Amino acid sequence: VQLVESGGGLVQPGGSLRLSCAASGSISRVNTMGWYRQAPGKERELVAAITRGGNTNYADSVKGRFTISRDNAKNTVYLQMNSLKPEETAVYYCNVGIMEGVYESEYWGQGTQVTVSS
């Protein structure tokens, strides 16, 4: 299983970015998909997650500004980020739970850098 992230980059404060993460390989079923971020010197934190059925969960700090969505046919999760703040500069990682037989395995993307700066 491979996760490929895209969409990071440099954006000015108040700007927007859309991250994508596509899972490929031998996949029978993708369960919860999520995005985490890790800023320098800080712990990795959950940004948003979405279940296969579409239930979502957001960190309080991003509610109303970020939107997580998924395309089950493409095994892809998206994170639309609006009104970005400088303190949200971090490496963003996707996290995916994938059924392998009767067990679920957790996979991480390679990370994509998001820099919010003028």
Strand content: over 45%
Helical content stands at: under 10%
Main sheet record: 7 strands, mixed
Distance between the first and last residues' Cα: 37 Å
Q: From the helix content, strand content and strand pairing, which structural class follows?
A: mainly beta
Report what the structure shows:
By secondary structure, the protein is mainly β. Helix content is 0%, strand content 58%. The chain has no helices and 11 strands. It has strands spanning 2-6, 9-11, 17-24, 29-38, 45-50, 56-58, 66-71, 76-81, 90-100, 103-108, 112-116. Strands 2, 4, 5, 6, 9, 10 and 11 form a 7-stranded mixed β-sheet that branches. Strands 1-3-8-7 form a 4-stranded antiparallel β-sheet, with no helix packed on it. 31% of the residues are buried. The model has no long low-confidence stretch (mean pLDDT 96).
Which key terms come to mind for this protein?
four-stranded antiparallel β-sheet; 118 residues; seven-stranded mixed β-sheet
List the helices and strands and how they pair.
Elements (H helix, E strand, L loop, with lengths): L1 E5 L2 E3 L5 E8 L4 E10 L6 E6 L5 E3 L7 E6 L4 E6 L8 E11 L2 E6 L3 E5 L2
Parallel strand pairs: 2-11
Antiparallel strand pairs: 1-3, 3-8, 4-5, 4-9, 5-6, 7-8, 9-10, 9-11
